[in-house]
Specification:
Length: about 600
């Protein structure tokens, strides 16, 4: 029944020594069987990329009569914990067990299906070796941890260099793996693993590398009825977030394989409640108390979702609205919004990290493209969020904050609101101030490419690379040809801004509007990112005057890339925001275990 309505219910799960955040998916219109599915997603950078696909898979399972639970491991996504906590692999396995126990109690189903992706597939198999798991679906499983670590090392080597602040750790694609975590993952080997009670298994290979049937043959040799197939769409699923594609054919095959096994009995549905508010956060290295996080459903039909984080229950301080960074769901790129929200909450600064409709857990209703960072619905969604926060929690003043496309959406939300409810605007690494339908998402990064090539001109090794022909000449030519036009436009706009301010470039006019609204504006730019050039080329005179007067603040984060994938610059960003928003309270934010980066302000 593809048209069956899926009920999605968020909450936290308590387990032995862990707590984790999750979503329950069910369809009341469909006759349910006696099995429940628990989805074990990847970790690290693959976690956010697979998030949308796993939500679609949970919906399809629910429509097929298999209620599903997807969840974040301890230290991942919205769950408590950090990369630096000890015992990561054991905590992740404990999270799987907690999810299984909750799924059984909630659904009334004793038979459990574990669907695992990448390292999540390894965790599922390891748990199945110790607990009674009826069915396994292992999608591109990490069979040997050593190979997985080599992949992480290769990703780290290909990225912009940056020092990891933790001795012996590996920082790869925005996540830290301590020496203890690396050793635990290296020890993973699924070939000696013997699932204790698994009757059926499906090993799903990805379609972009050579298929390896070793694990499927191993399970078959143990007496498990194991099937093997290669499913299409892996590269699209794991593409950059705004370009990712849900692998429909792969999901159809997985659901069809599971649905082909008839139920043995009718389950006795449970009424297990989800925890709606969590009150026991604390950040290692910061002796600041606790943070409360509350789930919020709002907007038409409560289709929008966000998490309110606060420490002090007082509502007289402005609340920070965190707009999606690109197409990443509300945890933010490299989990930065979670880190930001919890640290600010410990200072008494509340925040709401939320998904715009069509992104993350705010499921698209009606027409439009899912997963689009510039859909144009940010203003309405922000209005709905503020109305929820006013009516349910008593907040009346707000600060709009966003990274990348979130900066664009925050900017236009403030311009669209005539009242003074949004008292401040914080834009982090904007790549465009004006988006219109038909623009390429890649086109919005043209300025970023120009900055990258400008830096490369000062690096002798880059010239050697050019002479060897190891350069994308088409991309370089496109950037080079656009430079004269950009320079000419900048000069023309500066002249218009001087001679006819009311007919000047749009950015200059809009910045003057914000100044007339008495709305402070802060730009936070990663070193080498194009945000400052975009600002100064779009409104050279207005921006220069506002920077001198302090009406606009500009801070540059040394060593940072666009999404703050290194922990040092990421901590620097969060510290600066805390210092700015929290004033003297921010002095309490200094961690005992790390040296903070330089925090010079560029005005």
């Amino acid at each position: 029944m593809p048209d069956a309505t899926v009920a999605r219910e968020p909450g936290w799960i308590r387990g032995e020594g862990v707590a984790c955040f999750g979503w329950r998916h069910s369809a009341a219109e469909v006759a349910a069987g006696d099995r429940v599915a628990v989805l074990c997603g990847p970790v690290g950078h693959e976690y956010t990329r697979a998030h949308r696909t796993l939500r679609h898979l949970a919906d399809r399972l629910a429509r097929a009569g298999i209620p599903a639970l997807r969840f974040d491991y301890h230290g991942v996504g919205n769950s408590p914990g950090t990369d630096l906590d000890p015992g990561r692999l054991e905590a992740w396995k404990a999270s799987v067990r907690a999810a299984v126990a909750h799924a059984r109690e909630w659904s009334g189903c004793e038979r459990v299906i574990l669907v695992g992706v990448r390292l999540g597939a390894a965790l599922a198999a390891l748990v199945a070796a110790e607990d009674g798991i009826d069915t396994l679906v292992l999608w591109s499983p990490v069979v040997k941890g050593r190979g997985y670590i080599r992949e992480l090392q290769a990703i780290a080597m290909s990225a912009q260099p940056g020092a990891c602040p933790v001795d012996g750790a590996l920082e790869s694609a925005g996540y830290i793996y301590t020496a203890e975590t690396l050793d635990a993952i290296r020890a993973v080997d699924l070939l000696p693993v013997k699932p204790r009670a698994t009757a059926h298994a499906l090993v799903v290979a990805r379609d972009d590398i050579a298929a390896d049937e070793t694990l499927a043959r191993h399970l078959s040799a143990l007496g498990v009825a194991c099937d093997f197939e290669t499913a299409p769409g892996w590269a699209g699923m794991m593409a950059d977030h705004q370009f990712s594609i849900v692998p429909d054919a792969a999901l159809d095959r997985i659901v069809a394989w599971l649905a082909s096994r008839p139920p043995k009995q009718t389950p006795n549905r449970g009424q297990t409640p989800f925890i709606r508010e969590w009150k026991t956060w604390s950040v290692p290295g910061f002796d600041l108390g606790t943070v409360n996080e509350t789930l919020c459903r709002f907007g038409p039909d409560e289709r929008l979702f966000g998490i309110l984080a606060r420490g002090d229950p007082a509502t007289d301080r402005p609340l920070v609205l965190m707009f999606n960074g690109g197409s990443v769901h509300h945890v933010g790129p490299n989990r930065i919004y979670v880190m930001m929200a919890r640290r600010l909450a410990e200072l008494g600064i509340p925040s709401l990290r939320f998904d715009m409709e069509g992104i993350g857990d705010s499921v698209l209703q009606g027409q439009g493209r899912e997963n689009h960072p510039y859909r144009g619905n940010g203003i309405d969604d922000a209005r709905a969020a503020m109305e929820c926060l006013r009516s349910r929690f008593g907040y009346s003043r707000f600060i709009a904050l966003g990274l990348c496309s979130g900066a664009h959406n925050a900017f236009h939300t403030r311009l669209a609101l005539e009242d003074d409810a949004i008292s401040e605007l914080i834009m982090i690494n904007p790549v465009t101030f004006y988006w219109s339908e038909g623009m390429s998402l890649e086109g919005a990064t043209r300025a970023y490419d120009a900055m990258a090539y400008k830096r490369s001109m000062k690096d002798p090794s880059r010239w050697l690379k050019l002479l060897r022909g190891d350069v994308n000449f088409r991309r370089l030519f496109g950037v080079a040809m656009s430079y004269p036009r950009t320079a000419a436009k900048k000069g023309y706009d500066a002249l218009r801004e001087t001679l006819a301010p009311d007919k000047g470039p749009p950015l200059a006019r809009d910045l003057r509007r914000l100044i007339s609204m008495r709305c402070p504006v802060t730009f936070v730019i990663a070193e080498g990112d194009p945000g400052r050039d975009l600002l100064m080329s779009g409104a050279p005179r207005t921006a220069s005057r506002a920077l001198r007067s302090g009406q606009i603040r500009l801070e540059v984060i040394p060593g940072a890339d666009h999404t703050f994938s290194h922990s040092g610059p990421r901590d620097d960003l969060v510290g600066r925001l805390a210092a700015h928003l929290g004033g003297s309270l921010a002095q309490r934010m200094e961690p005992r275990s790390r040296n903070t980066a330089s925090r010079s302000r560029i005005q």
